[in-house]
Batch of 3 targets.
Target 1
Amino acid sequence: MKAFHQHPVEIHLTLACVGQMNTDIRDGIPWPILYGVGVSVKTGEIFPATFPDKGPEEHLRSARHLSGNRRILDIYDPATGLLTISPFDYSCPVGADFLEGQDDRFVLENLSTSPEVEPPHFVAQIRATFRYMRDNPAERVFQGGKPRCFKRDDRSGLWMPVH
């Protein structure tokens, strides 16, 4: 990301919707050809990519979406290197304990807009986010209404809390 933000060409990507260019039909069901792409900062070419590092507080960031907030937020500031998760209200959804006891198919059919094509980690991510929401109330996570801030450690590459 650092190289992307330091590129001499200013790029503002807010949302990439590639529709039929990234769609393959399998057994009558539309599937994404690629789930993720990378961009070469030298050539501008795109390539298939996966991102094993999901950044800090993945379940908290997912909780924003599961709590009904659909706005896409820019939480990373390349000038400072800070990733900031601003406070938001959430509570564990009604029925989360019920969902905990259901099989994966039930979770997919009830919490996905496209259950046949979700990546393998989808159900585990949903379950982990619900557990996070249950075990970490917003008032405790955002104590005093303060955001959660992180910066990458130059040596380890790990995201470290900034207080």
Target 2
Amino acid sequence: MKHLKIFILLGTLFFHANGFSWGQDGHRIVAEIAESQLNDKARDAISEIVGRQKLAILSTWPDEIRSDKAYDYTHPWHYVSLNDDESIYTLENRNPKGDILEALYRFEKQLKDPELTQEQQWQALAFYIHFVGDIHQPLHVGNRYDRGANDVKVKWFGEDSNLHRVWDSQLIDYYGLSYTEYVSFIDIAPESTIAEWVKASYEDWANESKTMRSQAYKLEQNQKGETDMGYKYAYWNRKDMELRLVQAGHRLGAKLNEIFGQ
């Protein structure tokens, strides 16, 4: 556990809020929902890896290390790029350094490997939790031409931002809730709906994000010709954002039960 504590400390030292996927609260919402869904066997197996740490703590580590150049090779794993005329099911133009789909399959396989050390298991679990969240953020299945809307400059309540950042964190932060409060408000889907959600594949998750991202691009300009987003944009996109967070949480819980709880 000593080395695991060092990982968390490094993540804290290198943390910077801008440009990260879903933001801290988004990932913690997903992880908190997932942890509430674990069966006893999965909970015990995960405790052997993480001790008493909450999954919410692990969920942000892959973003926290992105300011450390030693982890630059992990950057492409947070997203997959495809344009509107491309299909995730037949995508051939893939990043040779990896992408989020490749990473999800790889870390799922690692988590099933009994030969991994505890340290390797901890890292694999942190990455897996994080990437399940990322793939449900619509702009992490982004267009190539604007780098998942990172190049779409906007103003958020008058402050300079970009569309990707709005979806990563600013939409969630706007409501001023802690991640545990947010979970209590949005985790209300019927069991029958959840049962359908968890049948979907990684590719299905990505395709849902691709389909949903068109709504994210519906922007209006003010009299100065600026894309100044605020109350109206938050209102029209809140349901989509919350749906993706809840879907990610329940799907992550189901996958962890499949991996650890059989």
Target 3
Amino acid sequence: MSEPNGRTRRAVLAGVGATGLAALAGCASSAGGSDTPTGESEYGGWMRAVSNYEGETADRTGDSEVRVTVAPEGDYTYAPAAVAVSPGTTVVWEWTGGPTSHDVAEADGGYASDLHTSEDATFSHTFEEAGVSKYYCTPHRNLGMKGVVEVRGGDGGEG
């Protein structure tokens, strides 16, 4: 079927489809303008199911001590979920209290706290070497209660 200006309906639809695909391709290629990592690619997918991780690592390099909140507001999370520190930094996990017990356990077994519920509980670990330390809450790992400490600098680390 021809339109009054000589174009067929099929040609018009093909043109609209091609324009839409080109627009989508442009959006996809321009979305990569930032080097912000995502839970899928950063940390080997470890942060994929972490509800409060949106691809950003809190930069606390240069601080001698960093605090991470365990289960803020009763959530099954650590805050910040991912933190970058310098070698020699002590990370202190602080419990906020609540009806559910939580712990901090490194995925490779390098450190682990006891299970705590009280808001005055803390656990600390000093990170000496560059690398990535993945940790989780033992009873809530499957709920995405996981975190990362990225130690930057020193031998083999990022500057």
